[in-house]
Structures are given as structure tokens and as C-alpha cells.
Write a structure and sequence with these properties.
By secondary structure, this protein is α/β, with parallel strands linked by helices. Helices cover about 35% and strands about 20% of the residues. The protein is elongated, with a radius of gyration of 19 Å.
């Protein structure tokens, strides 16, 4: 069952078009090592990866990275269009699946998890649980269903039995940054987002975090892209290191549930 509602996203494309383009493009040969890795990174990881870049370079002398940040499906479109990347870092499993043969076999790793959160405009802090939204007034910003946060929110709402009661009040906002901006500006009363994004929004109140029983399975997945530098494996291995994981914990991420 899809979550209905108005759409303010302006997001073009569909999951099917990303998949077809990524799987039919011709494979690349490995490029020569120039001391720099090119990363395609889900935008919810941006603060973390910006902090991690210097730490990685300090632990890997002579190797740096340049990162492009976008929605996970948006990054798939860039890869399919021929933009050169060594590593793709997605906010879900399904978007990595869309890469098809573009994902280097055996390189895939699930390295971080996040939690679903509910933000409220400063005037609506009487709400402390999504279940209360069924009888409360107000519009609710959610990610569009062609981006991971939208799918995670849909999964939660369906499992919680809230899809039908909230359908007419959901504002599909594109990506998580747009959803957060809508509640922060007061254009919506509530927004579902990642817990790590909620911590960065001073103009809204965090009123709920999904517990283990409510977890929609938010997981971050990285893989090397076909034709990547051999040094891409250094980055993928480093994502499991204590240096990176300690930094991720400080940013509010956690290890995936095995």
C-alpha cells in the first residue's frame, strides 16, 4: 500500500528508469590510481563524510577522496549517465540493487544504520507518538517514495496501521532535507526523517524515535563501482574501522542489526 498525499518534491525519474539505465550501460575498465577516490554518497551522510575525509587521509597517506552528495537514486542516475565514481554509498539496499552489473561483485558492505524520527513544529510538541497523529490535526511531511527515507516511512506507517488514517495529510517532500525544511519553516506541522537529520534542526522538536520493534530497517550500503580504482577497497574496509565507526557514533549513527 502506498502512502498518498500531495507532492512538493519536483523529483524526476522513477526507480525503473534508474535500474534499466544502470544495468545496460557498458562496463568500464579499472582506472589508474591518481591518489584520489571519487565517491557518490547519500546526502544524509554528508556531515559525517565531510568530517571523516581528513581522518581517512591521515590514516591513508597519499590518498584522498572527492565526494558528490545527492539522493541515492539521483546518484544512480549519475553513474548510469557515465560520471566516474569509485564507490557508491546508498541509504538503502534496493538502490544498490539497481546498479546491477555496475556494482563490483563481492564489494558490497552494510556498514551503518539509522533510526526513523518524528519532528514537530515548535507549537505542536503535545504529540509524543506517531499513533497520536491519527486523531491530531496538521500536515505531515514525508519523503517521496522514490527515495529511501520515503520508503522507510511508508514501511513504518503500514506496519503501524497508520497509512489509511494519515493518507490525506501526507505532503511528499522529495528528500529528507526538504521534509525537514518544511516542518522547520512551519509549512507542515510534522515531518518524518532520519534521526541524524533531526539532531541538526534547531527550529523543530524531536518528539519520537523508532524503537527496535518499530525499526523499518534503515541501513547504509556501500559498494565499489565497476571500473573503480583498486584503492576503493581501502575505503570500503575503512568503513568498518574503529576510527570511522567512532566518528559515526558521534554523529548519531549506529551499527546495523545482524
Amino acid at each position: 500500500m502506498a502512502c498518498g498525499g500531495a507532492d512538493e518534491s519536483g523529483v524526476a525519474g522513477s526507480p525503473g528508469s534508474d535500474s534499466d539505465a544502470a544495468q545496460t550501460a557498458a562496463p568500464r575498465t579499472p582506472r589508474e590510481d591518481d591518489g584520489r577516490l571519487y565517491l557518490a554518497v547519500a546526502q544524509s551522510l554528508r556531515p559525517l563524510f565531510e568530517d571523516a575525509a581528513q581522518v581517512f587521509s591521515a590514516e591513508h597517506p597519499g590518498l584522498e577522496w572527492t565526494a558528490t552528495y545527492d539522493t541515492s537514486p539521483g546518484l544512480v542516475r549519475l553513474i548510469a549517465a557515465g560520471q566516474r565514481f569509485d564507490v557508491f554509498v546508498s541509504a538503502d539496499r534496493a538502490t544498490v540493487d539497481r546498479l546491477g552489473e555496475r556494482a563490483l561483485a563481492g564489494s558490497r558492505t552494510e556498514f551503518l544504520a539509522n533510526d526513523l524520527a518524528l519532528l514537530a513544529n515548535g507549537t505542536r510538541t503535545e504529540i509524543v507518538s506517531p499513533q497520536q497523529l491519527a486523531t491530531a490535526s496538521g500536515r505531515i511531511a514525508v519523503g517521496s517514495e522514490n527515495v529511501p527515507i520515503g520508503n522507510y516511512t511508508r514501511t513504518y506507517l503500514e506496519s503501524a496501521g497508520l497509512s489509511a488514517s494519515l493518507r490525506g495529510r501526507l505532503i511528499r517532500a522529495g528528500d529528507e532535507a526538504r521534509a525537514v525544511s518544511l516542518v522547520e519553516s512551519g509549512r507542515t506541522d510534522f515531518a518524518f526523517c532520519y534521526a541524524t537529520d533531526a539532531a541538526l534542526v534547531p527550529g523543530a522538536a524531536l518528539v519520537w524515535l523508532a524503537g527496535p520493534a518499530e525499526d523499518p530497517g534503515i541501513v547504509y550500503v556501500a559498494c565499489a563501482v565497476t571500473g573503480a580504482s583498486d584503492r576503493a577497497q581501502d575505503l570500503l574496509a575503512w568503513l568498518a574501522s574503529s576510527s570511522f565507526q567512532d566518528l559515526a557514533w558521534k554523529h548519531g549513527f549506529r551499527l546495523p542489526t545482524k
